[in-house]
Structures are given as structure tokens and as C-alpha cells.
Amino acid sequence: MNKIKEWVTITCKALLSAVVLLGLIPLLIGLLFDVVIIIPLRVPLNQTPIFYLWQDWAFGVLHTKVICGIAMMGEWRLREVLEEIYHGGLTHINLKLILVRLAMPVVVTLGLILALPYIAVN
Question: What are the transmembrane regions (predicted)?
Fold first, then answer.
């Protein structure tokens, strides 16, 4: 019974981490790319842009992979956090490390980058 409880806990932690790291962060990165690069080139000023979240998420997955590759090149905090998560493995997953030291700073930064222009205009 303890093994089942242990594996259910690991599965729940892995699913929550996956939703944030493979769902939310790529979506925000893709949305930022869409808002900054694609929409100004594709949509005239007198028309309203339409956002396709699946397409933004797919762009975000590609950009997230590139950003992770760039992050692993230098010596800085993000690389240390990614290596610590990698060395912990799936059975010793540290949800606090993933959410607090990796996901929260990235989500807050992307959220501010997306929200501040709207707040400044209004």
C-alpha cells in the first residue's frame, strides 16, 4: 500500500509539473511571440487580431526548447536549477524547486511582459 501511495504522489507531482512546464510556459512564450512578432506583421491596424492558442502553444514549445538550449550554455541560476531538477530524476521530483525556483520567476516575467504595455496604455 505504501508503494501505491508513493507512486500516486510521484505521478501527481509529475503531472502538475508537466502542466506548468509543458503547458503554461510554452503558451505564454508563444503568445508573447505572437503578440510581438506575428500580429504586427499579419494584421492591419484597423482589424482585430484573432489568437489561436494551439498555434501559440506550438510556437511556444519550439521557442522554449531553444531558450532551454541557450540557458544550458552559460553559467547562471537558470542552468543550475535545470541541472538540479534533471539530477533529481522522476522518483525524487522536487515540486517546490520546480514551481518556486523555475516556473514562478518565468511565469511572472512573461506575465509582466505581456501585461505591462496594456496597463501602461490604459
Answer: 12-37, 57-78, 98-120
Q: What is the pTM of this model?
A: 0.89
* Cβ partners under 8 Å of residue 39, min gap 6: 49
Q: What cell numbers appear for 23 in the block?
A: 503547458
Alpha-carbon torsion angle 84, 86, 87, 91, nearest 10? 120
In 3D, which of 54, 29, 27, 55 has the Cα closest to residue 42? 55
Contact indicator for 90, 68 with CB cutoff of 8 Å: no
With beta carbons less than 8 A apart as the criterion, state whether 30 and 63 touch: yes
Question: What residues does each domain of the chain span?
Answer: 2-121
Q: What is the pLDDT of residues 9-27, one digit of tens each?
A: 999 999 999 999 999 999 9
